[in-house]
Amino acid sequence: MENYLKKTLQILVLSLFASTSLLGQSSIFKKRESYQTLNQIWELEPETKKEPFLITTYKPVYVLPFRFSSHRRAVDFVVPADEVSTEKPIQLDNVEATIQLSFKAKIAQNIFGKGDLWIAYTQKSYWQVYNAEFSRPFRETNYEPEIVFNYPVKFDFLGLKTKMLGFAFNHQSNGREGNQFSRSWNRFIMHAGFEDKDWSLIVRTWVAFQTNENPDIENYMGRADATFNYRLNKHLLTLKAQHSLRTGDENHGSVEFDWAFPIYGNLTGYAQFFHGYGDAMIDYNQIHTIGGIGIVFAGTL
Prior knowledge:
Radius of gyration: 20 Å
Largest sheet: 12 strands, antiparallel, barrel
CATH architecture: Beta Barrel
Oligomer: single chain
Shape: globular
Distance between the termini: 35 Å
CATH superfamily: Phospholipase A1
Helix content: 10-25%
C-alpha cells in the first residue's frame, strides 16, 4: 500500500510540473487578473484562437485537504490479499482529502467553418489521508477522458445569449475490476453554452450506453446537468445541479456549490459543498452531504 501511495504521488507531482513547462505563457501559475470567460476557455472568437495541441486546463484543478462527509462511506474498501495476510475491509473515515486534475488540448480547428475538436482528461482521487491505521490509502479514483466538439454561435434563446453548441463522447470509470467494485459508463453528451457580462451557463443532456456494470447509474448520476458560473471581481461562484429527469423511485440528483476566493497573490482558496448522489462512482447510489476546503490552481479561472 505504501509503494502504491508513493507511485501515485509521484505521478501527480510529475503531471503538475509537466503541465507547467508545457503551458509556457499559458501556465496555470501565471498571475490572474480575472476569471476566464467561455470565449477564452473554448477560443470561440478569432482573437482568442490559439494553435492546436497546446495543453490548457479544463475543469478546476484543486486540492481539498479537508473534505467532511455526513456519514461514513457504506461501500467497503478491501485491502488486496497480496498486501496483507488476509483480505479485510477497511473502516473508512468520513474525513478525507480530494485531488482533481483536469486538462484539455485542441486537436483540430475550423471544422465546418468555425468548429473545434478537443480532447480532455479529468482525474479525481479520494485519499483517506487521515486513516493511519490502514496506511492512508486512496479509497477511489475516477477517470474521465472525453472528446469534445464546440461550435461558436451568436443568437438569443429565451433571453439568453447563446455562445456555443456542441457534443462530446465521454467515458467515466473507476478503473477497478470485478462486478462488486467496478463502475463505468459511456455517454454521448449534447451541450449549449450561454454567457453575459459576469456569468456563464452550460446546459448538458446525454444518452448513456454500455452501463452493464451499473445499469441504474442514470437514475442517480443523472441524464442532464447545468453549471452556472458567476464572476464577482476576484471571486468565482459556481452552482452545478444534475438530475435523473425521472419521478418516483427514480427521482434522484445532486447539487454542488463551489467558491473560489483570493487569499494572497496567486494563492486562491476553494470551498465546496455537495449534497446528493454521484459524488464518487463507487457509491453513486448513496446520498451524501459533503463540505470541503482547500486551494484551487486553475480551471475556469
